[in-house]
Amino acid sequence: MRDMAEDVHSGTDRLGLLLARHGVIMNLRIREALGVNGLTSRQGMALMHLAETGRMSQQALLEALGLDPSVLVAVLNDLEREGLAERRRDPADRRRHIVEITAAGRRASSVVEDALAAVERDLFADLDDEQVAQLRGLLSRVRTTPDDPACTEA
Amino acid sequence: MRDMAEDVHSGTDRLGLLLARHGVIMNLRIREALGVNGLTSRQGMALMHLAETGRMSQQALLEALGLDPSVLVAVLNDLEREGLAERRRDPADRRRHIVEITAAGRRASSVVEDALAAVERDLFADLDDEQVAQLRGLLSRVRTTPDDPACTEA
DNA sequence: TCAGATCGTTGAACTACTTCAACTATCCAA
DNA sequence: TTGGATAGTTGAAGTAGTTCAACGATCTGA
User: Given an 8 Å threshold on Cβ–Cβ distance, is A121 in contact with B27?
Assistant: First the structure.
């Protein structure tokens, strides 16, 4: 197909090492993008989640983001103070909070979206659309659910 | 019951978000693997680098790993104390250190290799060999070199 | 020989992330 | 009504990563 050099790197290159090397950098760039509004990357993540789902229980958000409860509290405090999200008690169970994104939150989240898109354009500048789609497909099938108990054997 | 919790991944999924989500987890697993000998993930990284190149100047290692000089010093101190690497002054320029991996270091590095391979097998269990190769190819073409000034134009 | 640069090193300050224990309010079931 | 569980909150401790300034040893060029 293309005349691309198949292996620019030396032969041994573990995929894991590639991920360790590039992953750190990609992560950095992505977190910068997530924090584009002066938010922390976590606040950005939470905002994106809320933008997707509109509203959800604090519990659900917590599990989706994989955060400690106490951490999420701080995140939501900040988002709420900035007027990007709101908490209100669930009338059906007053222990629970329902977290909802505000209009300002949606605006902020779309700014984050754009910043993410820009980083992607930058990171994946050498890939065409089809390849980016391919990459997305492959990555989405990576097993990141720790529900498999027998995974740390050597 | 938690009816909103389960289904999380869907529609909009930015590739960047995928990376932010999965990347953190992949990174965690990989770093666990890198630290399999009781080393820190950084020591593991350094060891892998040394195993690839055999020996290199401390300066070169520093740039390859993207570390602050002071950080590398600590890493090498530990590796040397464990007998996994050795520093000696470069006779051609006595300011410089030449870092060389030891036999024990090679053994340790191959343990890291195996652990990495295991993590990969686990993470990419749902991909066949061809797809893993594809993923490696795509990832290796991600732009992670920030030294290119003309890459952030849009 | 001297001045300035380079290499590795030390130490400290600073930030961010993680984890945990304890507490309040609320729900649910016996 | 009461005891135990759950949701969210607070605060603190511990860990790890980053950055920076300063220093001694050494090289290089004038």
Answer: no
Q: What secondary structure does DSSP assign to chain A, as a single string?
A: -----S--S-TT--HHHHHHHHHHHHHHHHHHHHTTTS--HHHHHHHHHHHHHSEEEHHHHHHHHT--HHHHHHHHHHHHHTTSEEEEEETTEEEEEEEEE-HHHHHHHHHHHHHHHHHHHHHTTTS-HHHHHHHHHHHHTS---TT-STT---
Closest nucleotide to the alpha carbon of A57, via C1': D7
pLDDT value for B85: 96
Distance CA A64, CA A51 (A): 13
Q: Is strand D less than 7 A from the beta carbon of B70?
A: yes
Verify if strand D has an atom below 7 Å from the CB of A87.
yes
Q: How confident is the model at residue B73 (pLDDT cuts 50, 70, 90)?
A: very high
B19/A45 CB distance under 8 A: no
Q: What is the mean pLDDT of chain A?
A: 82
A15 touches chain B (CB under 8 A): yes
Q: Is the pLDDT of residue A137 over 60?
A: yes
Dump pLDDT digits (tens) for B87-99: 999 999 999 999 9
Per-residue pLDDT, B109: 93
Chain D nucleotides near the protein (CB, 7 A): 6-12, 17-21, 24-28
Q: List the single range of A43-47, A96-100, B3-7, B35-39 with lowest mean pLDDT.
A: B3-7
Give the residue from chain A lying closest to B52, CA to CA.
A12
The C1' atom of C7 and the CA atom of B98 lie apart, in whole Å, by: 11
